[in-house]
Specification:
mainly alpha, 166 residues, single chain
Length: 166
Amino acid sequence: MSARYRAASGRLRSLGLSLAAGSAFGILNLMANYGLAASDPKIHERMIEQWTRFTAWSVMFAGPLVEEIGFRLLLMGGTAWLVSQLTQNRRVVFFVALALSAFIFGVGHLLGPTTGVVHATGVVLKDSAAGVLFGWVFWRLGLPCAIVCHGAANAVHRFTWPMLFY
């Protein structure tokens, strides 16, 4: 087996893992959103209003591309570089960069007004959890895999939410 074949096989395996992880997270995100929406009719209406604004293209391709470059490559990578100037402990560097980028990613998803504390807290928590997954994929597998993972999560959510919310 050639080195080129092994490298290509490894990349395909990484992309497959990213696709599977993103799809699984998309289902978890959908369940979390369903729980939030069931807790308050205002949250339900706000979610439908928000999701109908986005096209499949923006949710599956453009959004993940822009957000992964911004939050993972620039923010997480930049934070990792800054922290590495203070400590050589790779775990500290990773966890600080991951935690900061995931939290800012979660807060960044408070699009427009929320319906209250429960809704805002739910959005930040579930999107910060997504940021942890995407950040781990970015760190371990690279930017293309993080984009695929994010796109898969959004695609599963985008194409299944109408079944539960209408």
